[in-house]
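> @MW can you paste both from yesterday?
MW: sure, first one:
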Amino acid sequence: MRLKVEPRRQVSKPLQYATPPLSVLGTVVAAFVLFAIMGYDPLRALYDLFVAPLGNVQGLSELALKASPLVMIGVGLAAGFRANVWNIGAEGQLMMGAIAGGGVALAFYGREGWWILPLMSLAAVAGGMAWAAVPAFLKTRFGVSEILVSLMLTYVAEQFLSYLVLGPWKDPEGMNFPQSRMFSDSALLPVLFDGTRVHAGVLVSLLVVVVAWVVMSRSILGFEIRTVGLAPAAARYAGFSQTRVVWLTLLATGGLAGLAGLFEVAGPIGQLIPKITPGYGFTAIIVAFLGRLHPLGILLAGLVMALSYIGADQAQVDMGLPNAATGLVQAMLLFFLLASDFLVRYRVRLVRPAATSEPAPAQKATA
């Protein structure tokens, strides 16, 4: 007996949309078993991870704050994934956007003006787009894989950020800590609700979701992106340029990632530090697929993934659960999502090997 994998004749649409909630359910069950094996109370751990953060205003505000960059980056990545453009370096583009926007804030340190924050935003978008333009150029000009280039550039951006906060941009009054000066008030995002850290960037992320939904479902550009991804030959016949789509999707993702990076340093952090996010640029890849590459689905998926960050912090304080539980839960969620997608598109069957017929005695004698 052997296993045979064969594609299904028709992929069920209801099952495709059912796989994200089923993946979340599978993650919860697997986490329950794993926490029990590790010696923790699984019910309490799951409560801290997925329920406790939703029980007060502070938890809900932090949920919106952490979901905002995940949603912004996930929307940009989804557009590229629909066109088969695989940008894996959004984390590096986030850092470069934070560097560019933070550089503007430091250049005008001590000055006040309404124009500083818009200028920082433009610089952050430009920084993220410039970093994404490198894999776009190499792919369209030389056919180099954008996966490898964008991923490797992430580590270059990380080292560049560390160099700046340890060198020329280090706060001279910061007790030798690797950090820049604190941004002035004009360089910080306005807080929407007193007593919380929810800032105007959350509203921008919601606007990005609406604009992306309109563009992808109601515009010629969205149709062009989907056609290039689903049927490249038909796209060429229709006159759609694959090169144009590669540039557009990579630059859009880089710009959104750079803006998300600025919202982190001009929002809850208030300065440049070596570690800006816990890996939002990579987690946004899971968010994009969990949301089925649809802007509204990405909004819901971003809230789920943000909940895993907040819940892990809660469980670490209450139970001493390792901080790596966040990555563990996210990895299990990705595993169940990929496994579910595979089973929706393919059928696995047990096949009995064909019996080999023995030659007749007369045939043996002739031989």
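MW: second:
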Amino acid sequence: MDERRTVKVSKYLSKHLRHQPERIGLTLDDGGWVEIETLMAAAAAHGFRFTRDELDHVVAVNDKKRFAIEGTRIRASQGHSIEVDLGLPPTTPPPYLFHGTVARHLDAIRAEGLRPMNRHDVHLSADRETATRVGARRGRPVVLSVDTAAMHRDGHVFQVSANGVWLTKAVPPQYLRFPQPH
């Protein structure tokens, strides 16, 4: 399977498992799962065919581990804009986590902190390198440090998705550490 096809199938899966399952007639269960056969049939009925081998390849090679297969079912690991309960237990975070963004968002972040925007949770990274890659998708990256030890102490809840993304409802500005301007 070539890289372009892999990306195309991955984007299709993301759109319909994270954001708009109803567009192809899918109904996800409360945990975001759907039968693989149901997904493939719905996609084919809407003009986008892929094989089980292609699906397995996309799940296996996705560098962000965006999808999980359990038996005969598949779901997106996180990043939903639709209501799903991933069933992730509250988890004690490391002392600091990181968030990648771009400079044009810094004034709003200083005032309001990090908000989930069109997602259910704020996404945080365990290391600066990952946060840098996330921020770079929108321009020159700026990496913020999040004092998650203090947040956790103050009662904020954290979860970690199957693919290692840390999730929390919001990060108030007092827990953020901004890089020094050069």
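> thanks! The mean pLDDT is 93.
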